[in-house]
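Thanks for the sequence, V.! I ran Major facilitator superfamily (MFS) profile domain-containing protein right away. Repeating your input here for the record:
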Amino acid sequence: MEGGIHKAESTEFRDLLYLTSKQPFILRLAFSAGIGGLLFGYDTGVISGALLYIRDDFSEVEKSTVLQETIVSMAVAGAIVGAGAGGWMNDRFGRRPSILIADLLFLAGSMVMCFAPSPAVIIAGRVLVGLGVGMASMTSPLYISEASPARIRGALVSTNGLLITAGQFLSYLINLAFTKVTGTWRWMLGVAGVPALVQFVLMLALPESPRWLYRKDRKAEAEEVMRRIYPPEEVDAEIEALRVSVEADMAQERSLGGAGGTLRKALGSAVVRRGLTAGVLCQVAQQLVGINTVMYYSPTIVQLAGFASNSTALALSLVTSGLNAAGSVVSMFFVDKAGRRRLMLLSLAGIVACLAMLSGVFFAVDTHSPDVSIAGTAALSPGANGTCPEYALAAAAGGEEWTCTQCLRAPSGCGFCADAADKLLPGACLAASDAARRACRAGGAAGRREWYARGCPSSFGWLALVALGAYIVSYSPGMGSVPWLINSEVYPLRFRGVCGGIAAVANWGSNLLVTQTFLSMTQELGTAGTFMLFCGVSAGLFILLFLVVPETKGLQFEEVEQMLGSKDYKPWKKFNPKA
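Predicted structure:
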């Protein structure tokens, strides 16, 4: 864990297999705590599919982009509060009780959403779930990190990232399983309570973090936990290293003016300021590259690319989620070998390229959308009320011909009914309503038509899926896992709870900004313009991360603190603790 006899400079994944085979309790502990990551991932993925069916059940949600964004983002708002409270609770009551409380909140929120009679109650349930997810998002990797041998700490904390992506993948499978069941979205959201209940039961049988116990002067309990984690020939040295590390932390805290890891005291330390700057920037960058536009709105993005069916959009989104899970496995193999900093920067470079590609593809989709047919529109809307109002005015005035893109961007809310023979031929522009959707899909002599309400029919849709998949492959191994690992390593123990809480709040605050504005941005800037904006932001973040985030690969906690406190500290230079 700290100090000790291990040399962690060349840690590889085989060390994880070797140590856990000798001490299986380590894997049990990491997996049980890591279910918090599964909860995090499941909530991220499940709402993306549930939202498609919530829109169908509640007309007010269908008509309001802001309401759709609110249903998604209120879990994020709850997570901000949960992460902030979690930082205090971690220091005051311990890591294990914080995880148990998070489970209860998540379970309660899942039940509220499952039986919600209105969008307002769904939003209330999302807030409860968010509180639990926010607490778990910072506590789970912290708990795993503090109970892990140093040479496999990176791989074990990465199991939390793996379970996040596994939760996302599981949520898409469950979404697909319930597409034909009465109550679709209620089942999707209600099933989320199962992993929370499982983790609650498992955590009851696990101990508290040994570092937290030792700091609270519960030394006998801490040593007992350490003996369950380390092989007999190593445990005495590790216990001594833990004692030295914690006592040094407490001595420095006393020199700062008293007990308690307050923010004011924390910011008075150069070590904490540098660590907090790196940790917060990593968390903010993780969100501002736009990942949760993909994870929360993946089926919607697929529809924007020209795939109209809800079930088709969910099935195609499953591919991106699967790639995300695969990327997390890659991270577990390489994060301790390649290094945190290098993996993160390579990941971000790939993200910039993929976002530029996505922007180009959606620009092509917009500029090559099918025309609107006057005759086709009239055939499907014999009454004046059936035609899109803005299109009716333009046609009556003899203005320029409309395209599907213009139809879908009409302020009153309109949909495009594609030609039955060829979806790329001119179609009808109708006022969006259940009647119009049914009339379109009813077809006629020419066959069944497809109704488009989000994006237009396009021959470029498959390119959008390729770019989306490449984006996930670039994101997951680096930006998906490394920020959480960095934040578990760069803070001194006495300030780890409060600093972790600040970083998690920064993560969720950035997440809230992205999720609450994405759909509105696609309306104002267009989908191409929105992804180009994310591309520019990601390029700027690459420069900032290069300048601010140090390499922590293979370093013990006290060596990380030594690096951050050195007078010639340069994040882009490799640190030698023996120098």
